[in-house]
Structure formats: C-alpha cells, structure tokens
C-alpha cells in the first residue's frame, strides 16, 4: 500500500506537485494491470475482478487498485483536472514498477482518466480497457446531483454510529446507498466524507460548465494511442452511443467494442464473469510476452 503524498489519507496535495496515490495490490506474478474506479468509488471496488484475474495461485496478473485523487485514501486536489489525474496515476505506476508496460482498466471517471493516461503517457500503457464511457462531454453532473445533495445533508456532527448514518441517509436504491456510504469514515468521535465532496459539489453546481462531465480539449492535440483498446459497454447503459465511435477511433485507432448484454453502466458489477473473461483474453498477449 501507499499513503497520500503528505502521509495522511485525504490530505491536500501541494500546489504543482504530482501526488502519490493510495493503492492496493492483488496477485503475486504475471502482467501488470491497473484498475481505475469511477466518481465516488475506490480502488477496492475492483477487488473481485482483480482476484479472479489473479487466479487461485495469484500468478494470472499483478493488479494495482488505485484510489484516484480526491477519492479513498488518496490526497485531495485544489481543483479538478483530468490531466492532473492522469499524471498522478502515471507517477504512481512508475513508482511501483518503473520499467513495466501496464494494461490499464478504467470505468466511467476512471475510464476518462485511463484514456488520457494512454494519450499523455503512452510509454506506460501496453493495452487499454475503457468501461462504459466515451471521450466526450456529458453536459453536466446532473446524474450525480441528487447523490451529492443527500451526502451534504447528512449531519456529520450529529451522527452517533454508522447505523445512525445509514438510517438518516435517504437513498432508496440499496446498491447506490452502499456505494456512496463507503465514503463515510469515522475518526475518533467525528465523521467525515473520504471523497472530496466540496470539490465535486462545486463542479456539479457549474451545470453545463462541469469539468468532470466534460472531456478535455487538450486530448485532441496529442498523438493517437496506437496500442490495442477494448471498449466495454453495457447494453442497458446510455453512456455509450453509436455516434461516439468516430471520436473513439480518432484517438484509439485499434479499438474494438464489447457490449455486455443486460448490463447497466456498472458493467463489472452486473456481469463480473463476462468482464473477467474479457480481461483474461485481452491481457493474454502480455502474459505471453508479446
């Protein structure tokens, strides 16, 4: 494991610095694989997939589960930037294995970060897997505004226990509730959100000016990534549309798409067996040394 750049989880990274991100490791041998989670997620959300990829002997792959900046135990940012997120992931992966070529898997926010990582640091990325996100603007963070508002309404200073917090948190979807509540942490007698809620709330308040919902125009000035790319979509998700393919092909000419039947935006949660098998096949050339 690695801690925040300042030694404390959730600390503010110094201006202009590239923070070292918190990670978890799964597997003992095999190709290097990095997993990047979505908004309000944590690296450990990929634990089930990473363990399956490692296999019973742990030698199928060596996976690194990354807490992105402003999430989990990684340092917070003063302002959101996909380029800075990608640089932080790059620095963290180099710190783990300076000579490795990685297969990078990213979902949603992590998928955009993974795409920019491949474009900004192609020497690090051998293969790229983008899960249910496209290189485009999604307009705003409207999909998350209700979640953010409910998180902000939770009276942290009045909480007596996690059970009390869960009872007060008014989210009818049990899966979404559990996902968001994983960000709640207790420090002695006080409670805090581990994710940088203030930063995300301020971005959501920008409406169509949201940076998180957008795609950085700087990506178009970078050379296309020439490595193999697997683009995984959920058939029941609205995040990827047919008209997104030309933009994806322009940046990633060797892209091929896999649509998982019956899966929502949370493809790896809805169909873990399908995702694991797809990753096994996609990482195999690295295992074979090709």
From TrEMBL:
<feature type="domain" description="AB hydrolase-1">
    <location>
        <begin position="31"/>
        <end position="271"/>
    </location>
</feature>
<dbReference type="Pfam" id="PF00561">
    <property type="entry name" value="Abhydrolase_1"/>
</dbReference>
<dbReference type="InterPro" id="IPR000073">
    <property type="entry name" value="AB_hydrolase_1"/>
</dbReference>
<protein>
    <submittedName>
        <fullName>Alpha/beta fold hydrolase</fullName>
    </submittedName>
</protein>
<keyword id="KW-0378">Hydrolase</keyword>
<dbReference type="GO" id="GO:0016787">
    <property type="term" value="F:hydrolase activity"/>
</dbReference>
<dbReference type="InterPro" id="IPR029058">
    <property type="entry name" value="AB_hydrolase_fold"/>
</dbReference>
């Amino acid at each position: 494991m690695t801690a925040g750049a300042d030694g404390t989880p959730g600390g503010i990274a110094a201006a202009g610095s590239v923070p070292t991100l918190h990670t978890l490791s799964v597997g003992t041998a095999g190709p290097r694989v990095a997993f990047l989670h979505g908004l309000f997620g944590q690296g450990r959300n990929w634990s089930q997939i990473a363990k399956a990829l490692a296999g019973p002997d742990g030698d199928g792959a060596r996976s690194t589960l990354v807490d992105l900046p402003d999430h989990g135990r990684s340092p917070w940012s003063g302002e959101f930037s996909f380029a800075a997120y990608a640089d932080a992931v790059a620095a963290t992966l180099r710190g783990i294995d300076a000579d490795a070529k990685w297969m990078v898997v990213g979902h949603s926010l992590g998928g955009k970060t993974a795409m920019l990582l491949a474009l900004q640091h192609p020497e690090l990325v051998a293969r790229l897997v983008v899960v249910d996100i496209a290189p485009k603007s999604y307009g705003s963070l409207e999909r998350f505004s209700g979640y953010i508002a409910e998180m902000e309404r939770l009276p942290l200073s009045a909480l007596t226990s996690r059970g009390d917090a869960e009872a007060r948190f008014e989210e009818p979807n049990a899966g979404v509730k559990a996902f968001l509540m994983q960000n709640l942490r207790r420090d002695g007698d006080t409670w805090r959100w581990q994710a940088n809620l203030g930063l995300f709330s301020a971005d959501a308040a920008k409406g169509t000016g949201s940076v998180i919902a957008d795609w950085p125009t700087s990506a178009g000035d970078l050379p296309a990534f020439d490595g193999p790319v697997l683009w995984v979509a959920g058939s029941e998700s609205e995040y990827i549309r047919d008209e997104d393919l030309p933009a994806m092909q322009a940046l990633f000419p060797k892209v091929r798409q896999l649509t998982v039947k019956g899966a929502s935006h949370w493809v790896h949660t809805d169909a873990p067996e399908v995702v694991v098998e797809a990753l096994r096949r996609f990482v195999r050339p690295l295992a074979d040394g090709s």
